[in-house]
From TrEMBL:
Protein name according to UniProt: ATP-binding protein
Domain annotation Histidine kinase/HSP90-like ATPase: ranges: 18-122
Alphabetic keyword roster: ATP-binding, Kinase, Nucleotide-binding, Serine/threonine-protein kinase, Transferase
PANTHER family xref list: ANTI-SIGMA-F FACTOR RSBW (PTHR35526:SF3), ANTI-SIGMA-F FACTOR RSBW-RELATED (PTHR35526)
UniProt superkingdom: Bacteria
Source organism of this protein record: Nocardiopsis endophytica
Annotated GO MF terms: ATP binding
InterPro entries: Anti-sigma-factor_SerPK (IPR050267), HATPase_C_sf (IPR036890), HATPase_dom (IPR003594)
């Protein structure tokens, strides 16, 4: 269950969820709705964000302490004049830093960060004090600009 969007400070939106696989769907729906309805961004930006939020939240739940009992994952949206930075915060504890890995053609898993690297303007691991996770940046097109 989502705690809902909470405006952390002017222009930053946050959604914290339990560290369960269902968090990916909840986070992507929240991000898309916030990007289109609250920030007025183009639907294609929201669709890309949905995919990348889903992939990064799933990774947080599967590969960090966020997926342990009582764990949580947080998504933050940081809109700027030309782009939106999306951060997925996890509970840490991953064996390695986030990085794309080659996936076999018939593999079911292993393409999440490769998608992030291919579709985001910028991305990388996030380590600020106790905050761990991944960030990525997407162009902040509005429907009018994107016609």
């Amino acid at each position: 269950m989502t705690t809902g969007p909470i405006q952390v400070h002017y222009g930053v939106f946050r959604c914290s969820l339990p560290g369960e696989l269902t968090a990916a769907a909840q986070a992507r729906d929240w991000a898309a709705a916030t990007l289109t309805h609250r920030l007025g961004l183009a639907p294609d930006t929201a669709e890309t964000a949905k995919l990348l939020v889903s992939e990064t939240v799933t990774n947080a739940v599967l590969h960090t302490a966020s997926g342990r009992p009582g764990g949580s994952v947080t998504v933050e949206l940081h809109p700027g004049p030309a782009s939106v930075r999306i951060e997925v915060h996890d509970a840490g504890g991953a064996a390695t830093a986030p990085r794309p890995v080659p996936a076999a053609p018939d593999a079911v898993h292993g393409r999440g960060l490769a998608l992030v690297a291919a579709l985001a303007s910028e991305w990388g691991p996030l380590v600020h004090g106790r905050v761990r996770g991944v960030y990525f940046t997407l162009p902040a097109h509005t429907p009018r600009e994107h016609r």
